[in-house]
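User: Sequence recovery, please. Input:
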């Protein structure tokens, strides 16, 4: 996804299944990566934001220009937005419209100032040298608005035993699996076994 700063931020993160198998999941959108820090999915091990420092660490991994010194209020805001995004996109993947309450939360954060673009190399600094955590939340909320408006690309994994949601960034708009390392590979193995019989 393109962000208001004009840069493309890498998406994806490592997940661990209940049986201890690690696999890479690229959600296709930073807002979904954010939602998958704990508000989405049924695996309690995926929760990553237990305290403010965890929220700061997540920001540091993804935003070079954000002050990652965060407090309890910053974490509360992050968890509120995260939950609204998670509920909205999970519902959208099942052809359900987001609730008005979740729309309001996402819109509220999207309406706050985001991280402004800036050219490097100048001799004067305009504004703060580092953006505030709330500005990163604004970027995530704005991306969520774009995702929700592009609803046909929000999908649930095609595997019958998986409910992971992703944003299909493929040009052909035909991504089926949460990950080829996980569900895609299992489907290929099943198809191969069925063909062999």
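Assistant: Recovered sequence (197 residues):
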């Amino acid at each position: 996804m393109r962000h208001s700063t004009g840069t493309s931020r890498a998406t994806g993160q490592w997940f661990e299944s209940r049986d201890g198998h690690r696999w890479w999941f690229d959600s296709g959108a930073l807002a979904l990566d954010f939602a998958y820090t704990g508000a989405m999915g049924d695996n309690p091990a995926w929760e990553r934001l237990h305290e403010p420092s965890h929220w700061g660490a997540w920001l540091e991994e993804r935003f070079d220009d954000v002050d990652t010194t965060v407090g309890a209020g910053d974490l509360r805001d992050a968890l509120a937005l995260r939950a609204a995004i998670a509920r909205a996109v999970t519902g959208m993947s099942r052809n359900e419209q987001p609730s008005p309450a979740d729309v309001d939360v996402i819109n509220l954060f999207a309406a706050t100032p985001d991280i402004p673009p800036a050219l490097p190399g100048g001799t004067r600094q305009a504004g703060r040298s580092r953006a505030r955590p709330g500005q990163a939340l604004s970027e995530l909320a704005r991306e969520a608005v774009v995702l929700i408006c592009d609803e046909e690309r929000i999908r649930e994994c095609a595997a019958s035993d998986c409910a992971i949601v992703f944003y299909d960034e493929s040009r052909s708009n035909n991504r089926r699996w949460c990950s080829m390392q996980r569900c895609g590979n299992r489907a290929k193995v099943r198809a191969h076994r069925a063909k062999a019989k």
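Residues 88 and 165 are 11 Å apart (CA to CA).
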